Amino acid sequence: MAISENARAVLEKRYLMRDEAGNPKETVDDLFHRVAGAIAAADKVFDPQADTAATAERFYRMMTELEFLPNSPTLMNAGRPLGQLSACFVLPVGDSMEEIFDAIKNAALIHKSGGGTGFSFSRLRPKGSTVNSTGGVASGPVSFMKVFNAATEAVKQGGTRRGANMGILRVDHPDIMEFITCKNNTKEITNFNISVGLTEKFMNAVEKNQDYDLVDPATKAVAGQLNAREVFDAIVSSAWQTGEPGIIFLDRLNRDNVVPQVGQIESTNPCGEQPLLPYEACNLGSINLVRHLQRTEKGFAVDWEKLDRTVDQAVHFLDNVIEVNQYPLPEIDQMTRATRKIGLGVMGFADMLLYLGVPYNSTEGVELGRQVMERINTRGHAASRALAKVRGPFPLFAESTLKNQPPIRNATVTTIAPTGTLSIIAGVSSGVEPVFAYAYIRNVMDNTHLVETNQVLKEKLVGCGLYSDELMRQVAEHGTLAHIDGIPEEIRRVFVCAHDVSPMWHVRMQAAFQDHTDNAVSKTVNFPNSATKEDVSEVYHLAYTLGCKGTTIYRDGSREEQVLNIRRVNDGKEAPPEKPASPGHIEGDYGQLLPRPRPAVTTGFTEKVKIGCGNLYITVNYDERGICEVFTNTGRAGGCPSQSEATARLVSVAIRSGMDPKEIIQQLKGIRCPSCLRQPGVPVTSCPDAIAKSLEKVIRARQGGAPAAAPAAQPMPIPGPTAKRDVSPAEVKLAKFCPECGSKLEHEGGCVTCRNCGYSKCG
Question: CATH number for the 595-731 domain, one of 2.40.160, 1.25.40, 3.40.30, 3.30.390?
């Protein structure tokens, strides 16, 4: 198998079947055999004499050679009792209490099964509207989004993939201004990505600086007017501030709706790339373009014939997925089978460019992207038509906009989806994004820091006699090759990373792929922190001009942690000077204690402690004013991560609010846990007891005394490019650092991904 050790670790952690004790019941090789066999079995539905063993072998080879991988739910659930194989769904939200809570219930079932959900809240009556049945007033779309968000928060705790949502509101809804700013407070509605549904009429009004009508969805009457340019500027301002909302162009989504008589497309999946009708699901997969290169006398070239063969197999695979899928709702089963939409996309495009010596931010790079996707789209449709000759077209074909063309098996064939975890498994760049970074400092336990280098760059530098760990540490520290003097200009010109690529090139590349993609293209336009609102506005206008169906932006560092605002209080007035009564806390309104801000630089200890269900890693950090925070991480064997994290958070808040750590130790020490008590050789009675004992050791060490036992930890270095990043709870919520391993998260493909451990906000 071509699977790397890093990919194997991700698969073992997230994808393998496990027994009741959490131990793996299969190997990585078993996983791919399980998936291949389950998907190949669908052939028997159409031909009882089909050689499914041969088909399974082809599917197995295609996946293990990393030529193609299906979306994560297929890898996780194919051949297992759950059997839910789709990544994304769209659910309708009607304008009644019954319909709203039906949607919440259905979303919970989907999240439990490992899928993500998209919603349009545009049917809900605006805030303040009369509710005839009760005589009361409606609370509006944003208030109900918070209910959906809370339900997702509850369900996601027990799932293998986190429930993710997309919330969309039409720009002509009367509550549009509240929606645009509903995530400016980054602690609100954290389980949603949001996008504004723009119309051609609205965009024309923006260009002309005109007012446009707001329409009450319940009565269809004009409910007011707003200036289009002011609304557009508000969208830009919020996106510049927090990365949201994104934008989608509703008229373009419905222009390509192949079954308009069934309904209008109102929403997409959580990453913005898969427009779907209510109750539709889409089954996605990605071709690894790096595996479709061949060496020639002049270097590398695209192996077009191999690419064609993989497209044929991938379309066959994805159509089979529809057949064996166990959908979470009967309505989804019926609607998905009626259109049989699939979404074949790519990953490793940026790495392909590197092998070919083509800069991402170049006309040649954009044209190659267009050429590759045109080939995949054309061949994919041909493969779907070939299947239709044997299996028949999708059931709604005769009623579709395609009815005058040759019959086709799938209403849509291509989608460019984010491939965060899949690209880690494949060892390549994500989707059609540029390489985010060429070198990482991988943080492993016990304060070990390893340099991990992009394989293409490593091969290039080794061939030139330039590679060294020290050079790669410089690359990791700078985040780019652009200013590394030891690297030749020609290499720096080709090996550009996401922040070297100007926003305009990001959009041009997205548009090139969109030209030959049935559905949409998941893409994040990454801005430097210094970008202006005018820069964001220019990208949104360019996305509209070049024919994109939507776009998402992220300005580096825009989601700063602002849990406390020292100089201002909630009413916006200047706060009184900080009282010096206690150095451990800040006094807020009404005399309540507020924790002092977390210092920018800390020193501390990390200790590995054996507990009843594995290992617990406890970090205690301090500054010149004393201990300031505690955080925990569990080893692979398991543990109670939520409970130990909650304890650590409360300890941190209490200490920074001025509480004596010795009082906290007294409260935690001696708490008993059956898992610890029944395991021999465990030196603590529980996770809280372990935290208390670590606090004691740090206090003794800082007072100059020797710890009671030889410390398992070493002093942590001052945080820098090669040190482990201390992660506060707020930073996790703001999608800055991975909640599982603490590494910095990347904004790409319309989603947020950790390249270190495979965590993905969108699942």
Answer: 3.30.390
